[in-house]
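Q: What does the assembly look like in three dimensions?
Context provided by user:
Components: three
Sequences:
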Amino acid sequence: MNDNGNTNQAKEIICIVCPNGCRISCTKAADGIHCSGQKCKRGEAYATAELTHPMRTLTTSVRTIFPDSPVVSVRTAGEIDKSKLMDVSKALGKVLVKTRIHTGDVVAENICGTGVNVICTSDRLMHQQ
Amino acid sequence: MEELQFDVTVIGAGPAGLAASLTADKAGAKTLLIERETRPGGILKQCIHDGFGLVRFGEKLSGPEYAARFIDRLPNSDVTVWTLSFVSAIQREQDDSILTVITREGIRRIRTHALIFATGCRERTSRQIGVHGRHCAGVFTAGTAQYYTNILGELPTKRCVILGSGDIGLIMARRLTLEGAQVVGVYEAKPTPSGLTRNVSQCLWDFEIPLHTSKTVTRVFGDARLTAVEIASVDPCMCPIAGTEEIIPCDALILSVGLIPENELAESIGVPLDSKTKGAVVDERNETLLRGVFACGNALHVNDLVDYVSESGEIAGAAAASKEKKCRGLVPVECDQSLLYIVPQRISRNAEMQERVFFFRSAKDMDNAMLTITKGGNLLFSKRFSHLRPPEMERLPVLLTPEQLFGNEPLRFHLEELDHE
Amino acid sequence: MSYCKRINQTLFARFGGRVTAREQDRVLYLEGELDRWDDVVAAGLLAVNHKKYDGLVNDIRFTGGEIPPMRLPKVTDTVLDGAAPDVLVIGGGIVGCAIARECAKYDVRILLVEKEHDIAMQTTSRNDGMVHPGVDLIPGQVKRHYNRRGNRMYDEICKQLDVPFRRSGQYICFRGKKLAFAAFFGQLYYKLIGPRVTYLRKKAFFQREPNMNPAISAALFFPDAGVVSPYGLAIAYAENAADNGVQVSLDTAVLNMTVSEGVITSVRTNRGTIYPKVVINAAGVFAEEIAKLAQDRFFSIHPRKGTNTILDHKASKRMHTIVSSFGTSSTKKRHTKGGGLVKTIDDNTLVGPDAVETYQKEDFTTAPENVAFVFDAQRKTDTALNIRDAITYFSGVRAATYEEDFVIRKGKWTKNIVHAAGIQSPGLTAAPAIAVDVSRMAAELLSKSRIVRSNESFNPIRTGVIRASELDLPARDALIRENPDYGEIVCRCEEISRGEIKDALHRSIPCDTIDGVKRRVRPGMGRCQGGFCGPLVLQIIAEETGKELQQIDKSAPGGELLMGAIKEVMP
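A: Here is the predicted structure of the complete assembly.
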C-alpha cells in the first residue's frame, strides 16, 4: 500500500488532514482526479495533491547555544514538497540558535528555496533554568 | 507544618491538568496546580510533531504550541502553580483530601475540598511484554527515546528496530529517520497497527519504513550495548512460533507497546478503578466513586487525541469547582465484549435532560457497525458507524432524558457488525 | 577396592570409556571428553567425595559448545604497576568486600581488585537477598558453620554499616494432613539441632499470611531469617573498607600470576603488575581460574544459573516476609535454598529462583521458560501469583563446587593464598563470618614475615546515603530546608530525590553509571523501570561528573545510552 504511483487504477489514500483518517479512493481520469470516501473537502484536496504533488509540514528541532535547552523545536510555517523533507531536515543542521527566541520566530527563511520559512514552535528558551 | 487550603487541587500539569485548573479557576474556585517537572505541559513538551488541536482549534499545532494555548492563560488566572512539586501521600478527612507535597522549599500540607487526578500515563516496558535476553543499554520506550531526541537533542540510536505500532512509536520512526537514523522496521504483534491510520501513512509510508504485523521481538542480544534483536512471527494468541526466528543487527530496540494510566496515588486512597481502562470509575462529571475526587485525561483512560484530554480536564475542573452537593443517583454504564471500554462508567439520573458524552473503543476493526444503548431491554439510542478501529477512540454525544434513566438497570453498550448492503 | 577404582567402574558404566578418574595428593581428577554439559556435571556429582578428598577437579573436556572466555575490562593502563600490598583481594562481590573490610582491622595495606565496573556486579547482586536461617543445611558442612555464625552477625554488621536489614522470618508451608504431620516432627528435628523454629497450625499461619494458598495446612516459622539488599551490603562493606584505607580498583582483572617455590610473587592485571604478600581468592564463578593461576587448584566450579522475577509493590502487599512451600523445586534439592516468595527489604516480592546447570559463567540472560517454571512452582504457595505483576526479571550464576560446599581455607600447595571459593547460597548470610576467618588467616600468613598488629584507627561505622522518604515528615522537611535537592523528586515510582542521587555519585567507592546509581539509591527500580527518571539521572551524572551525556553508560563501559547529538549525525 504505497501512496505514490501513477496507475489508472483506483488508489486508496489515507487522509492525514485530521484524525478521522478517511480512506479516500482516487481514480485518475481524463477530466482530472475523482475521489470518494472522504468526509470533507479538505480530504479531496489532500488526495488530489497527493497524486500530483504531495506536500508535508516538517517538524523537527534545531540546536541552540543554551545548555539549559540544547535544542528548540521548529516547523515549516507552511507545507513543503514531500520529496524535500530530508533535504530541509539536513539543511536545518546548519542552523544554530543564539538568542532566546519565542514561538513563531523565524529561524530560517525560504528554506532550501521552498519559499517557506521555518519557525520556532516552543517558548522553551524563554524559561531559563 | 503549615496547612494551606484550596477549593480545588489538580495533580499534574499536562494537558488535562492545565485545562482542569483553568476551568476550575474560571468557575471561581481557589485552585492549586501541582507539577512534578520543572515546567508545565506534561508530555506535550517533547511532542514536537504537529497535528494537535485540529478538533479544538481547527489548526495543526505542535505539542509545545498546543500546551502554550493553556500555559499562556495561567498568568492571567488565579491558579496557583507549583512546579518541581511532588505529592507523596494523600489522606482523606470526610470529603476533604489532605496532601503531603514535597517541594524544594520544604514539605507542604494541603487541605483541598476537591482533588483532581490528572496524572497521565506511563509506558509499558520491555520486561512487561516479555522481551528477554540481557539487560543491556539500548532498550528504550518510545517516550524516553523521544525525550532524548527532542528535549536533550541526543539520538539514542543510529539503527533501530521499533516494536509496537502505537502512535508514539510511529512518530518516533519518522523523527529518527529525519535525524539520519535508520529504522529497520516497525514490528507489531497484532495483525493490525495499533496507531492512528494517518500516522501509519505519514510516518511510515512517507519514509518507506516497513511495517511487519503479527511479528514480535522475543530476545535482545548484546553485552554492554544492544547489538541485535530476535524477531519471531506470532500465532493468533500472540505466542511466538518456533522456527520463525530471525536475527536483526541493530543498536537499539524502541518500544511502543501501550500506555498504562498512572493511578497509584488514586489507588492509595481507595479510588475504585475500571479493569478495562485501568483508570478510575467516573460519572459524567468525571467524579470518581469517592466524593470530591475527580480524574481526567490519560489517567482516566488513554486517549489518542489531546483535544479530548483537554475536554476531559475541563469537565473535571468545572465539576470540582461546583459547590453543589446533591445525591448522585448513579446508573451504571456497561459494555459487552464488542467494546474495549466505555467512559464514563456511571451517569447520574437526577440531572435535567442533557447531552451526555461517552468515549469508547471497539474491540476489533469493524466496517459498518451498529452501536446500541439499551436499559432493561429498552433501546435508548442507536448509531451506525462506517469504520471503527480499536486504536481510534470515538466520542459519542447522546441526548438522554431523566425518564430514560429511571431505574437501577445499567445502561448497556453493544456493537454489532451489519451485513454490507 | 579403592574409592578411585570403584568410581572408575561407575563412570565406565555410565559414560563408557569416555571419562576416567585419578587421584593424586588427596585430590580426585576427572578426565575425558563429553559432549553434553549435563553429563559433565553429572560425572562430577557422581565422583565427588568430600570425606576422602580435599576436592574434586573436573577436567572433562566439554565438546558440545564453546565455553566463553571471561569478559575482560575495556581499559588497559599501568596505574597499579608496582603496587605491593600486603593483601590482594581478588573479587569485589559480597565476600571480597567483606574480607577487605575485615582485613582493614589489621595494620596492613590492602588492595581489592574487581574486573567489573562496579562492586557486586555478578552473583552478589543477582540473588534474592535472603539471610538464611539454615533450614536445609547438614551438620558438618562448612557452609552450615558459616551460615549460623554469619546469621547471628547480621544485626550488628548492618547497624555498623547503615544498611537496612529486616529479620522478618521465613515460613515453610505444608499442604495436606500428612505433610502437616511431617511438619510437626520437622520442628522437633530443628529444635534439636537448630535453627529456631515455631510450628504453626493452619489457623495461626493464615492469621499472619492470609493471602497464601488455602490448601496450606501447616507451616514452620523460622524467626532467624531476614532480608537485606545484597548489593547494598556489598557496597557498604566496600565503602567502609575504602574509608579505612583499603584501595579499591575497579575494571581490574587478574590475567596471570607468577608462582615460585609455592609462593605467588606477582599478579598481572590489565592495569599493571602487582606484588602482593598474600592473595585472597574471592573471585566467585572464576575462583577456579584464579586457583589455577596460583597453582593451587583442588576444586572445580560448575556454574548454576537461577532466574528471579520482581513484582510490583502493589502485588507485593499480599505477603509480609519469606514464604516457601515444602516440596517446591527450591527447597527439595539440597543445593538451592531458594526463598520461594521473598518480600525484599525494598518491599517488592521476589519470585524464584530456579536452578539450571550451565557452562557459561557470565550468562545473565533471561528466558521466558525459566520465569514461567518458577511461577508455576511458586503458585503452590500463592495461587494468585500473576506474571502480569512482574516489573522485571534477572538471572544470576551460582559458583557451586561439586562438594556443594564452601572452600574457606589457606592454599593447599601455594603458601600465600587464602581461598574463599565455592560460595553459593547461603553465601550472603555467611559472608560476614567468612570475612572474619579469612582476614585472620591472611594475618596469620603475613605474620610469618612481619608483626601484624590491629589497626587502632579502624572505624567500623559507615553512614549510608540518607533515604529521605523514610524520614518522618518534620525531619524530612528540615533536611530539605537545609538542602533543597532532597525536596526535588526525580524517581517518582520509588520517590528518590535529586539530593540522594547526587550523594550516590560522591561516595568513597566511585559510581558513574545509571545502574550504579540505581543500585545505590533505587531510581529506576520501580514500575516504570526508569522510563521517566532515566534521562534525568543521566543529566545529573553528567552535571556531577563533568562528563558529556554521550559518555555516560547504563552499566559498564561500552554501554553508552546515547549515540550522538541530533543534527550532527546526519549522513
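Follow-up: The CA atoms of residues 304 and 403 of chain B lie 34 Å apart.
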